[in-house]
Structures are given as structure tokens and as C-alpha cells.
TrEMBL record, chain A:
<feature type="transmembrane region" description="Helical">
    <location>
        <begin position="61"/>
        <end position="82"/>
    </location>
</feature>
<feature type="transmembrane region" description="Helical">
    <location>
        <begin position="470"/>
        <end position="491"/>
    </location>
</feature>
<feature type="transmembrane region" description="Helical">
    <location>
        <begin position="355"/>
        <end position="382"/>
    </location>
</feature>
<keyword id="KW-0472">Membrane</keyword>
<feature type="transmembrane region" description="Helical">
    <location>
        <begin position="315"/>
        <end position="335"/>
    </location>
</feature>
<keyword id="KW-1133">Transmembrane helix</keyword>
<protein>
    <submittedName>
        <fullName>Putative tricarboxylic transport membrane protein</fullName>
    </submittedName>
</protein>
<feature type="transmembrane region" description="Helical">
    <location>
        <begin position="147"/>
        <end position="163"/>
    </location>
</feature>
<feature type="transmembrane region" description="Helical">
    <location>
        <begin position="20"/>
        <end position="49"/>
    </location>
</feature>
UniProtKB/TrEMBL annotation, chain B:
<dbReference type="InterPro" id="IPR009936">
    <property type="entry name" value="DUF1468"/>
</dbReference>
<feature type="transmembrane region" description="Helical">
    <location>
        <begin position="83"/>
        <end position="113"/>
    </location>
</feature>
<protein>
    <submittedName>
        <fullName>Putative tricarboxylic transport membrane protein</fullName>
    </submittedName>
</protein>
<keyword id="KW-1133">Transmembrane helix</keyword>
<keyword id="KW-0472">Membrane</keyword>
<keyword id="KW-0812">Transmembrane</keyword>
<feature type="domain" description="DUF1468">
    <location>
        <begin position="18"/>
        <end position="152"/>
    </location>
</feature>
<feature type="transmembrane region" description="Helical">
    <location>
        <begin position="50"/>
        <end position="71"/>
    </location>
</feature>
<feature type="transmembrane region" description="Helical">
    <location>
        <begin position="125"/>
        <end position="143"/>
    </location>
</feature>
């Protein structure tokens, strides 16, 4: 199908008043949770899943995408004004952005972040619309063994990209995979790891695990940090309008950030952090006034902010075309699709073109809304930062338990929330990444299904897994992702840069 | 994130060993369950035990790797965590589970709010409890009436 015809068809879906409303609610919520410390887009979407169960799928998914994009915008505000990144993909933004805010240039820093996010988000969404049909064409020929290889690739990149070491990333991943085993095996009808507890027969809910790890785990570790975690808010000083020089220094980093962020996000490499680190390093090297770096260089805000928004659009490529989530938020969005009986992948473009293209078209609209919400209204969001932390975290826990009870009003579910919350605290305390646990839980059962399908076709011959050229290429890439950091270390004698955890 | 630093003395990292032990135990549980399943006759080429076996193997390998890392990297310095605030938050969560079946969503969750706020250093508990209960009752009304979500009801909710 012609991409532009499909996209304009999608635009008519996205422009329906009810869907515009969903997009607006999504970007508002997304910006708010992006600004607030302790909650991110993954948690927000997870909390909304039970509430949106009865709503229209297209509208809810448009709202989820709005939350995802909004989180990227809001994260920069917290980074710049608070020096505490709301999202891990805004860590780099804090480096220069907070220096600018302290020097009284918070306004232009917020402006270059917002406009850069808009430029990058728009270009990358065009990229998504152009690339997606091509990936779909390729993916349609994938057999189960190729899908299994693809998921192995996602596993390795997600665990190698997050966290402080590959062992830790893999440990988190295998915890998620083990949790994914719990429940009735759909093919044989056998109960696995359920210890005769009826509530466990349905398996672990993605929502419960995500809410526990992100909300409860985070709250516990912030509480445990006590006075260590105190923070200072920089008031927005100066005009939010950028000078001519700011524009001149910003537009190239925006473009470069976009072209770093989108491809890296689109590859099953996971996350938006790595491109922000790369963009920061690149801008530092290209900047004509390198001495300004470290003291509030606008390029150091413009580039990484563009990169993280472009990567957010990129992550949607494998999610929509292959059903492959490469970040925690994408994993929860996949759960969102599944709750409506929709399976993202090449077939979704054939069976539900209105929904897919409506979603993609709505991203353009969401970007426009976010620009308006974040520039003139930035003062409003800053006020969110002034909410006292006892009330903020009290409220987070109220909503966390509310979401869990809404999905399944049972005490066992709340008990699991508590246990996984403690797990989340332990993982944080000992530097284990969170995202691979969630990705493991949701992709584990899917990968097992593909594995068994592939082996059923080959009548149990495991060699069949390694006979397709596509699968072999994907395994080679997985090996590179796992052993790449080690190779990098052996070749250069330095530790490879790793991304931080994403939520 | 704070980078782990090597301490001057090369004592093995105790926490690492505990985690390695936990992983080994988990590997055993998953492996035992897989063994139990493998004795059941499956009608397809690959039964329900194959995938758990792979995962149990992976967990066992990771347990070894974690133990080796704990030995090689030595004891890690970690910032001290404060126990009392955490205990308040946990008391809030456990209390909610205990109160929920008897007293309903608003009171149980109001307690959770008050205990969490106390954990973050803001009291008095009773004032936060009252405010939290009122707030949660409003949430209950919105969610139960507006979105038809079935939240556990107690004496207050039944007044409606």
C-alpha cells in the first residue's frame, strides 16, 4: 500500500475529535509524569491499562503513544531545572541544561529542548512512516525460527545495553523469563511453577510486575536514601525565547541528534539513552567553543534532547512491525495491544491498517501539542516539581495499588505487588537494571511459542533453528551485542560506555 | 548511578554471594519443576519442560558468574540505607492488605498514604490518614461509578 495514502487515511482517524482528546490527555499525562521524579511513562501506561480496558483500542493506544512522547519532553524539564533527570534518557541533558539554568539561562535551555524535541520527533515520525512498510515487507517472510532468533537478539541487546555489566543485565532478563514461566502452559495445559496457588495459574500480570518494580521499588529506594536524595529546584529565569545565536547553535545539533537517535532506536538495540550519550560526545567534539561544555553549552542540550525523542519514535518501528519491544515502555505498550487481542507485527498492518496508521498520524499531532504545552506553559509544569515528596510518593503508591486492584481485585495480587516491589528495591540497591525483567516477562512466553512452533515444524530437530540465513544473521548480531563490550575492552583497554536504566 | 568502587581490602562481596545463592535456589526450583513436567507425556515434539530447562540452566550459569564476580571484585562500598523510612512504607503496604477486606478501599489506602508520607518524614499520621481516606473515597467514587471498576468496598463505601 502507498505510504502516503495510508498515512492520510490514518490522519482522518487521528483527527476524529475523540482521538484528538485521547492524544491531548496522553501528552498532558506524559509531560506531567516526565517532569515528576519517581514515575515515568512505563509506569503510567501500566497503571492505565486496567482503566482503559473497556475503552476504544485506537483511542487508548493513541493516548499511550502520547504518554511515551510526552515523557520524553517532560523529562528534559526536570533535568534542566532540578538536575534530577525524570527519565534516564534525560541524564545527559542535565549535564549542560542544569548549568544553563544556574547561569540564569533556564529559559533558552527549556526552549531548545522543546523545539529540538519537536523537530526530532517530527522527522523521526516521518522516518517511522517510511521505514515501517519496508520492515513489514521483509518480516512477512519470517518463519518461526527467524522470530525466535529476533527475540534472542532483543534479549541480548536489552540486557547488554542496560545496567552496569552484561552479567547483571542477563540476570535481570532471566528473572523476567523465569517469572514468565509461571502459569498454565497453553500448548500442553500443564501448570508450571504455580505451586497449587489458583491465582498463579493465569501467570504474572505485566501490569503488576511493572507497577511493583517501578513504583514500589522506586519509592522504597528513595525512602531508604533518606536525606541523601534532597534536591534544589532552579527557578526559570530569563525569557523562554532563544536569541538568534541560540538558534544558530541549536539547529545543527537537533538534526544530528535526530539522525543518531532514530536508527539506534529503530534497531532492536533498545532504549533512548545510548544515542543521547553519543550525541553529547559528538556535539562536544564539533562545538566551536569547547570550553563552554561543562559550563552550560546549548549544543549539549539541543543534541541529546533531539536524540532521545528521535529514538522514542525509532523504538516504535520494531514494536509495530515485528511486535518486538526494546524498552520497558514499549513492552507495556505491547501488553496494551494484547489486552485488545491485537498482536503487533506485519499482520497488524494488513488487518488493522486504520489503527496502525491512525496511531502513527497521531504522533505528528501529539508532537505539535507537546510543543505548545511545553513552551508557553512551562511554568505550570515547574510547579509540579514543588509538590512535597511525602505527598508525591504517597500519591504514587495510592495510584499503584489502585491500578493493581482495578485490574484484579484480589489480595494475592496486592501481595505479589509487595513482593515484586521488594525485588525492585533489591535490584536498584545492587545496580541491576529493571527494564530487562519486564521485557523478559513479556517476551519470554512469546519466544517460547516461536521456539516450539519452529521445532514442531522440524519434528524436534534443533538444527533447523540455525538453517535460515536471516536467523543466522540475527544470532551473529546477538553475539556481537553480548561480546561487543568485552571486545571493545580488549581492543581499547577501556570499558565500553553503557546506557543507564530506562523506565 | 554511582559507580561501584573497589575497596582497599580484597574481601569477597557478601551481597554478591547472597544474590548468587538466590539465583542458584531459583535455578533449582525452575529445574525441579521442569523435571516434574518432563515426566509427563507430551504429544508434541517439544513439551512444556524444554523452555524451563533452558532458563534453569541460564540461571545456574548466572549464579556461578555472580559468585565469581563477587570474589574477583571484592567488597563493594554502598551507601547506607536507612531502615526506618523503608519500614514505614512497608508497614503502609502490608497494612493496606490487612485492612482492605474488612474496612474497604478508602480506609486501607488512606492508611497507605499516611504511612508513606510518614516514611518520607511528614506527619502527623492521623491527619494524613484522614486526608488520605477522604481522597481515596473520592477516587473510589470516580472509579467505581465513572469507570465501573470493582474496588473492594467497606463500611464507608457502602454508605453510598
Amino acid at each position: 500500500m502507498d505510504t502516503f495514502a495510508a498515512l492520510s487515511q490514518g490522519l482522518t482517524v487521528a483527527l476524529q475529535p475523540i482521538n484528538l482528546l485521547f492524544a491531548f490527555v496522553g501528552v498532558m499525562l506524559g509531560t506531567a509524569v516526565g517532569v515528576l521524579p519517581g514515575i515515568g511513562p512505563a509506569l503510567t501506561v501500566a497503571l492505565l491499562l486496567p482503566i482503559t480496558f473497556k475503552l476504544d483500542p485506537a483511542g487508548s493506544l493513541i493516548m499511550f503513544a502520547g504518554i511515551y512522547y510526552g515523557g520524553m519532553y517532560g523529562g528534559s524539564t526536570a533535568s534542566i531545572l532540578l538536575n534530577t533527570p525524570g527519565e534516564s534518557s534525560s541524564i545527559v541533558t542535565a549535564l549542560e541544561g542544569n548549568k544553563m539554568a544556574r547561569a540564569g539561562r533556564g529559559g533558552p535551555a527549556l526552549a531548545t529542548a522543546a523545539i529540538g524535541s519537536f523537530v526530532a520527533g517530527t522527522i523521526a515520525t516521518i522516518g517511522l512512516a517510511l521505514v515501517a512498510p519496508t520492515v513489514v515487507d521483509i518480516a512477512i517472510s519470517f518463519g518461526p525460527e527467524d522470530y525466535f532468533a529476533l527475540m534472542v537478539l532483543a534479549f541480548t541487546t536489552v540486557s547488554a545495553a542496560f545496567g552496569s555489566s552484561v552479567t547483571r543485565g542477563l540476570t535481570s532478563l532471566f528473572l523476567g523469563l523465569a517469572l514468565g514461566l509461571i502459569g498454565i502452559d497453553l500448548q500442553s495445559g500443564q501448570a508450571r511453577l504455580s505451586f497449587s496457588i489458583p491465582d498463579l495459574l493465569d501467570g504474572v500480570e505485566v501490569t503488576t510486575l511493572a507497577v511493583a518494580l517501578f513504583a514500589i521499588g522506586e519509592t522504597l529506594s528513595v525512602a531508604a536514601a533518606g536525606a541523601r536524595a534532597d534536591e534544589i529546584i532552579e527557578p526559570v529565569k530569563g525569557s523562554v525565547f532563544m536569541t538568534r545565536e541560540d538558534w544558530k547553535r541549536s539547529w545543527k545539533p537537533w538534526i544530528r541528534g535526530t539522525f543518531l537517535g532514530f536508527p539506534i532506536g529503530a534497531m532492536p538495540a533498545g532504549g533512548a539513552e545510548i544515542p543521547t550519550f553519543l550525541s553529547y560526545a559528538l556535539e562536544k567534539r564539533l562545538c566551536k567553543k569547547p570550553d563552554e561544555f561543562g559550563n552550560g553549552a546549548i549544543e549539549g542540550v539541543a543534541g541529546p534532547e533531539a536524540a532521545n525523542n528521535a529514538a522514542a519514535a525509532g523504538v516504535l518501528v520494531p514494536l509495530l512491525t515485528l511486535g518486538l519491544p526494546t524498552s520497558a515502555t514499549a513492552a507495556i505498550m505491547l501488553a496494551g495491544f494484547q489486552q485488545y487481542g491485537l498482536n503487533p507485527g506485519p499482520l497488524l498492518f494488513v488487518t488493522n491498517p486504520d489503527l496502525v496508521w491512525g496511531l502513527i498520524a497521531s504522533l505528528f499531532i501529539a508532537n505539535g501539542m507537546l510543543l505548545i504545552l511545553n513552551l508557553p506553559l512551562v511554568g505550570l509544569w515547574v510547579r509540579l516539581l514543588a509538590i512535597p515528596r511525602p505527598w508525591l510518593y504517597g500519591g504514587i503508591l495510592v495510584f499503584a495499588t489502585l491500578g493493581t486492584l482495578g485490574a484484579n481485585p484480589s489480595l494475592v495480587e496486592l501481595g505479589m505487588l509487595l513482593i515484586f516491589g521488594l525485588l525492585g528495591y533489591v535490584l536498584r540497591r545492587y545496580d541491576y537494571p529493571i527494564a530487562p525483567v519486564v521485557v523478559g516477562l513479556i517476551l519470554g512466553p512469546l519466544s517460547e511459542q516461536q521456539l516450539r512452533r519452529a521445532l514442531a515444524i522440524s519434528v524436534g530437530d534443533p538444527l533447523a533453528l540455525f538453517q535460515s540465513p536471516i536467523a543466522l544473521t540475527l544470532y551473529a548480531l546477538s553475539a556481537l551485542a553480548l561480546f561487543g563490550p568485552l571486545l571493545f575492552f580488549l581492543l581499547t583497554g577501556r570499558k565500553a560506555p553503557v546506557g543507564a536504566d530506562e523506565d | 548511578m554511582n559507580a561501584p568502587r573497589l575497596s582497599s581490602t580484597r574481601r569477597p562481596d557478601k551481597a554478591g554471594f547472597v544474590i548468587a545463592f538466590g539465583l542458584a535456589a531459583l535455578a533449582l526450583v525452575v529445574g525441579w519443576d521442569a523435571w516434574r513436567l518432563s515426566s509427563i507425556n507430551a504429544h508434541s515434539a517439544v513439551g512444556p519442560a524444554a523452555f524451563p530447562t533452558i532458563i534453569a540452566g541460564g540461571l545456574a550459569l548466572l549464579a556461578v558468574a555472580t559468585a565469581v564476580e563477587a570474589l574477583r571484585r571484592g567488597e563493594q562500598e554502598r551507601p547506607r540505607d536507612e531502615f526506618v523510612p523503608m519500614a514505614w512504607v512497608l508497614a503502609g503496604l502490608v497494612g493496606q492488605i490487612v485492612l482492605l477486606p474488612l474496612l474497604g478501599f478508602s480506609i486501607a489506602t488512606g492508611w497507605l498514604f499516611a504511612a508513606t508520607a510518614k516514611g518520607f518524614g511528614r506527619g502527623p499520621v492521623w491527619a494524613h490518614f484522614l486526608a488520605g481516606t477522604v481522597l481515596c473515597f473520592l477516587i473510589y467514587v470516580i472509579f467505581a461509578k465513572g469507570l465501573q471498576l470493582a474496588l473492594p468496598a467497606g463500611p464507608i463505601e457502602r454508605l453510598m
